[in-house]
């Protein structure tokens, strides 16, 4: 094109000579993507030109984003010295930290960036990477991709059923967030899953089982199975954001493959992983666990006990909590040596936890204290 009629009319006509002239593209465009300054610019001129000549918009959707500004919300300028170049970020933090910043930013507003913001994302990245390290360490890099449809969920312990239910819900949210381009909430949910639901909850409860139970223990095997599934899911969920980290891990656990994580499909979770009853029960159990942790921390603060494994907790519950809690091992859930659960409907509160020192001898394997021989390693206790 050698002649210009009018710059905005010409730019608004690009859909005609770009999309309609090429067989590998389609008209109308799936999306027009531009900054918020184009509301009365390219977006507007394209809409006017196309509606005038073709009777409809040249796009199916529009995504409008803000501008990159400094940490205080000020426009970046070389004269004020608040410009951060992408190559400087790559050199100091690596590409995946920059990708996290993009994914976690709400592009509906201006996107703030400075080194303190990047440091926070680097810390979040460290937590995500540690989650992957924990998974890889406990499956000993022996990753097996499972057929989810063949998994008999009914045979798993309740905690594993609950984690699969959480995977089901997060996967549904993953698709919803992606379809609506809601990347910052997607990243927030995945980060929360790694730090709160896995590291501070599931991994915390199951670490003693993984370290202390026999390798052929069914409960341990079920846990390893779920760790494999979680690893598979996290790799697929994080691949669009942490493209280099997920590729590194994928190649580590698939040494015989020459494929890439970025050529794989996103996961689909069977409907039978959804379990509202288990979800409701474990939300109550988590509340009991939270109350127990408060009681334990109070004893630790007063130096009455050291670690939680030095504690013997007595849990008193009203009927609605007791009926759910009575068949669960709270010494495992709360990581204590002993735990008892009783019903008390005369209390004002739903949950009351009393923590005291566990009495007896410490098992040198699991470190649990008992007056009798350790249930798992009795032959080692004296």
TrEMBL record:
Keywords: Aminoacyl-tRNA synthetase, ATP-binding, Ligase, Nucleotide-binding, Protein biosynthesis. Residues 160-314 form the Methionyl/Valyl/Leucyl/Isoleucyl-tRNA synthetase anticodon-binding domain. SUPFAM superfamilies: Anticodon-binding domain of a subclass of class I aminoacyl-tRNA synthetases, Nucleotidylyl transferase. Signal peptide: none annotated. InterPro entries: aa-tRNA-synth_Ia, Anticodon_Ile_BEm, Ile-tRNA_ligase, M/V/L/I-tRNA-synth_anticd-bd, Rossmann-like_a/b/a_fold, tRNAsynth_Ia_anticodon-bd. Residues 2-114 form the Aminoacyl-tRNA synthetase class Ia domain. GO terms for cellular component: cytosol. One of its GO terms (biological process) is isoleucyl-tRNA aminoacylation. GO terms for molecular function: ATP binding; isoleucine-tRNA ligase activity; tRNA binding. The keyword Protein biosynthesis applies. CDD domains: Anticodon_Ia_Ile_BEm. This is Isoleucine--tRNA ligase. It comes from marine metagenome. The lineage of its organism: unclassified sequences, metagenomes, ecological metagenomes.
């Amino acid at each position: 094109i050698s002649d210009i009629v009018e710059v905005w009319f010409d730019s608004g006509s690009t859909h005609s000579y770009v999309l309609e002239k090429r067989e590998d593209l389609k008209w109308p465009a799936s999306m027009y993507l531009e900054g918020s300054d184009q509301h009365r610019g390219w977006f507007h001129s394209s809409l006017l030109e196309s509606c005038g000549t073709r009777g409809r918009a040249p796009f199916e959707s529009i995504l409008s984003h803000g501008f990159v500004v400094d940490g205080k919300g000020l426009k970046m300028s070389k004269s004020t010295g608040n410009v951060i170049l992408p190559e400087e970020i790559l050199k100091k933090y690596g590409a995946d930290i920059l990708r996290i910043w993009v994914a976690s930013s709400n592009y509906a507003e201006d996107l703030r960036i400075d080194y303190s913001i990047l440091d926070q994302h680097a810390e979040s990245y460290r937590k995500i990477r540690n989650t992957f390290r924990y998974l890889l360490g406990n499956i000993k890099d022996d990753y097996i991709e499972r057929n989810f449809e063949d998994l008999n969920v009914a045979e798993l312990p309740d905690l594993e059923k609950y984690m699969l239910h959480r995977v089901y819900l997060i996967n549904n949210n993953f698709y919803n967030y992606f379809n609506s381009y809601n990347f910052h909430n997607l990243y927030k949910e995945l980060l929360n899953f790694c730090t709160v639901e896995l590291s501070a909850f599931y991994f915390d409860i199951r670490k003693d089982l993984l370290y202390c139970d026999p390798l052929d223990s069914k409960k341990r095997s079920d846990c390893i199975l779920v760790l494999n599934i979680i690893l598979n899911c996290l790799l697929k969920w994080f691949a669009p954001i942490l493209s280099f980290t997920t590729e590194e891990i994928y190649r580590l656990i698939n040494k015989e493959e020459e494929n890439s994580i970025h050529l794989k499909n996103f996961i689909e979770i069977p409907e039978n992983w959804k379990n509202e009853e288990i979800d409701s029960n474990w939300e109550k159990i988590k509340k009991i666990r939270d109350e127990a942790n408060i009681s334990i921390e109070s004893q630790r603060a007063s130096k009455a006990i050291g670690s939680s494994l030095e504690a013997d907790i007595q849990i008193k519950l009203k009927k609605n909590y007791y009926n759910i809690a009575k068949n669960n091992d709270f010494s495992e859930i709360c990581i204590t040596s002993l735990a008892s659960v009783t019903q008390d409907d005369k209390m004002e509160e739903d949950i009351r936890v009393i923590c005291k020192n566990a009495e007896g001898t410490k098992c040198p394997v699991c470190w649990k204290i008992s007056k009798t021989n350790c249930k798992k390693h009795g032959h080692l206790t004296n």
